[in-house]
Design brief:
26% helix; EC 3.2.1.141; Malto-oligosyltrehalose trehalohydrolase; Ig-like_fold; GH; 581 residues; 14 helices; single chain; cytoplasm
Length: 581
């Protein structure tokens, strides 16, 4: 088997494989690369030593059986026999479901999660978006401090477990999207600097030195990240990738890394003959991100739209701290703007940032499906002091209203696991750092962060306490209980409506119409012949729809059709979907 590694500054590189040692040779065709052959098969352990240093895992390791600091293991990608033929499932028309493998089930494994995929197929989900799977120290964590970005976290089941998960998902008609982190690596178990200039001090990120995307040596670093992305899509038959915090990718080159990545993914889609897509997390509000490359954009296929979340959250809860302040001044107006224009901040002043922010989105060129809308995500729940979901503080009726606006609105909807039955379990920030100093630093930092917002230290869960992760696991007995079952049925009905009614999948943002009364706390959404009315007030609202003949398609509480004057009476904290005629 041929082994190779990029170590441009090394004088010598040694391969340690299956107990044997041999010196690698410089590759005559590729500057900085070292190669050599050794006897190996699937599961064989190996590592590299640079200039007689310690034996380290392969930067392109496909498996780390003993964690990020252990030896790598050879993975024979052809060994797995795929059971399901899969032509792919594109993003337009999708309903996504964000899932964390470690807490989706108490077992916290890919195989256990695969056994629960029937639930998502029955719900009407089209794509499962897995939170990061790359190895990280310890057993449990969110996954955003992973290292070895070509490998699968061993406690989740390793590479073959991911293939079994994807196979089962595809059998049920579900696409699979993976959240990948290209903007930083975790602080523990990161051995890349020993091999070459993977990082640069030219730029800084909130997590330290930036990945080297534009300094000397960056050609190979970019190829490393692009190769990792293509490997996930090709070797594991994934349908798309979610790119974490792309605004933290510091790149001054004429061809931005994201443009290079999107071109490579589109080329792979052509080669494989199935659709592939990239979804960015970005707070830049820059439509160039999702504008095709041939029109001068970066060519990504979609992005998360936090503006919709923030507007909806403030309308529902009244919260006004931090970044919610910009939206809380007029939450119904903010919500109406995101439903019709995509971004709230499109060149407007942001008090949270102390400057103007964003750029207008051209609704004639940008399809609504390129923006993901959601009422809850791992970030928006888990980064609260106690990891409380909307259902912890809102009535079931208001939860139903949030679902109605998310699932009947123009943006591509995404749910966070458990949201569909108003899960009573929190989703808290948890870690399992094996380095005691790092563990204590994270614990102190978390408590210090929330103490600044008035939280008592004892009220902030200890991230390192195993009970914090255990509390965050979904309780799969809840959907059988009356209230949770009612919410679940509501979500199922709304997703089915979105699938059946063409007006609800119309990607034209310019065709969306919104009316609202902020004082009375109601909002009405028009999408073709479909009307959606939500009443966030406790009292019954009289909503002038302007139509006299309408048929109720779904309602949280029973409602009558509009009266002779076209006025619809909606009970307090309730919502309804109607069709004209």
């Amino acid at each position: 088997m041929r082994f190779e590694v990029w170590a441009p500054q090394a004088d010598r590189v040694t391969l340690h494989c299956a107990g044997a040692t041999r010196a690698l040779e410089r590759d005559a065709e590729r500057v900085g690369w070292w190669t050599g052959d050794a006897d190996a098969q699937d599961g064989t352990r190996y590592g590299f030593a640079v200039d007689d240093g310690p034996v380290l895992p392969d930067p392109r390791s496909r498996r780390q059986p003993d964690g990020p600091d252990g030896l790598s293991a050879v993975v024979d990608q052809e060994r797995y026999a795929w059971l399901t033929e899969w032509a792919g499932r594109p993003l337009p028309g999708a309903v996504l479901y964000e899932l964390h493998v470690g807490t989706y089930t108490p077992e916290g494994t890919l195989d256990a999660a695969a056994e629960r995929l029937d639930h998502l197929a029955e719900l009407g989900i089209t794509h499962v978006e897995l939170m990061p799977l790359c190895p990280f120290p310890g057993r449990h964590g969110w996954g955003y401090e992973g290292v070895s970005p070509w490998a699968v976290h061993e406690p989740y089941g390793g590479p073959e477990a991911l293939k079994r998960f994807v196979d089962r998902a595809h059998e049920l008609g579900l696409g699979v999207v993976l959240d990948v982190v290209h903007n930083h690596l975790g602080p523990s178990g990161n051995h890349l600097p020993a091999f070459g200039p993977y990082f640069t001090d030219t730029h800084q990120t909130p997590w330290g030195s930036a990945l080297n995307l534009d300094a000397p040596g960056s050609d190979e670093v970019r190829a490393y990240l692009v190769g990792s992305a293509l490997a996930w899509l090709r070797d594991y038959r994934l349908d798309g990738l979610r790119l974490d915090a792309v605004h933290a990718l510091r790149d001054t080159r004429a061809v931005h890394f994201l443009e290079e990545l999107s071109a490579a993914v589109d080329a792979l889609a052509d080669d494989l003959g199935r659709p592939l897509f990239l979804i960015a997390e970005s707070d830049l509000n820059d439509p160039r991100l999702v504008t095709p490359r041939e029109e001068g954009g970066l060519g990504l296929h979609a992005q998360w739209n936090d503006d919709f979340h923030h507007a909806l959250h403030t309308a529902l809860t009244g919260e006004a701290h931090g970044y919610y302040a910009d939206f809380a001044r007029a939450p119904f107006a903010a919500l109406a703007k995101t439903l019709t224009s995509g971004y709230f901040h499109d060149g407007t002043y942001s008090s949270f940032r102390g400057r103007h922010h964003g750029r207008p989105l051209d609704r004639t060129r940008v399809s609504a499906h390129r923006l993901l809308g959601y009422a809850q995500t791992h970030d928006q729940i888990g980064n609260r002091a106690q990891g409380d979901r909307l259902s912890a503080s809102l009535s079931p009726g208001l939860v139903a209203c949030a679902a109605a606006l998310t699932l009947t609105g123009p943006l591509t909807p995404m749910l966070f696991m458990g949201e569909e039955w108003a899960a009573g379990t929190p989703w808290q920030f948890f870690t399992d750092h094996t380095d005691p100093e790092l563990a204590e630093a994270v614990r102190r930092g978390r408590r210090r962060e929330f103490a600044a917002h008035g939280w008592a230290e004892e009220d902030v869960p200890d991230p390192q306490d195993p009970a914090t992760r255990d509390r965050s696991c979904l309780d799969w007995s809840e959907p059988e209980e009356a209230l949770h079952a009612r919410v679940l049925a509501w979500y199922r009905d709304l997703i089915a409506l979105r699938r059946r009614q063409p007006d609800l999948s119309d990607p034209d943002l310019a065709a969306v119409r919104v009316a609202y009364d902020a004082e009375a706390r109601w909002l009405a959404l028009r999408r073709g012949d479909i009307r959606v009315a939500v009443n966030l007030a406790k009292d019954t609202a009289a909503i002038p729809l302007g139509i006299r003949h309408a048929r109720v398609l779904a309602a949280w509480e029973p409602v009558e059709a509009p009266d002779a004057d076209g006025v619809l009476s909606v009970p307090g904290e309730s919502c309804v979907v109607l069709t004209q005629g």
